[in-house]
Amino acid sequence: MADSYDTWAVVVLRGEDGWQVAQLPPGIAEDLDAVESAVRGQGAGAFALVDVADEFFVVLRVVAGEVALLLSDAGAALDWELATQVMERLDLDLPSDEESLDLHPAGELALFTDLGLDAMELSAILDDEDAYADEVLSSLALRLGFADAYEQAVGALV
Question: What are the φ/ψ torsions at residue 20 (nearest 5 degrees)?
Fold first, then answer.
């Protein structure tokens, strides 16, 4: 389990004045139910970005009351509780030790289609096996148009 210095989360929402990114409380990022509660409290379309030790990340988005999840690396579920929680919520089997060597996402690759990022493009962003989780999240923020707000919020965390 990561300590609070290794794990952080932000909530992102699009308001009338553009994108807003805010830090979630320390420790919340280690429990999927807590992350979901925090996102639901922000209103429709809000989502959380959770970085765990720059090893993997989780995106949790609530649209029309339904939760969409994306885990950047299913193999992380063998070592990290949050990743295990995501795999369980997705009703997916944990990968074998051998399968965990290959980086592959799990969950909803189309969770940002309504924001102009389709599943193929998101998959291409996730395919960079040399990038750390924070670098992939920065790329995602840039592509979706909230990079400045994201960098400001994350800069205060690390």
Answer: -125, 135
Contact 64, 28 (CB under 8 A): no
d(CA 102, CA 127): 11
Residue 1 included in any domain:
no
Amino acid at residue number 89:
R
**Rounded to 5 degrees, what are φ and ψ at 140?**
-60, -45
Question: How many other CB atoms are there within 10 angstroms of residue 79's CB atom?
Answer: 14
70: tokens are 């994306």
Report the percentage of the chain scoring pLDDT > 90. 68
Determine, yes or no, domain membership for 80.
Answer: yes
Region class of 41: left (phi > 0), else alpha (psi between -120 and 50), else beta: alpha
How many domains, the chain?
1
Is 120:99 a contact under the CB 8 Å cutoff?
no
| pLDDT tens-digit series, residues 61-79 | 998 888 999 999 999 999 9
Tokens of 153: 């919020």
Below-70 pLDDT ranges, the chain: 1-5, 97-102, 157-158
Q: Are 22 and 153 in contact (CB under 8 A)?
A: yes
Q: Note the pLDDT tens digit of each residue in 13-33.
A: 998 888 999 999 988 888 999
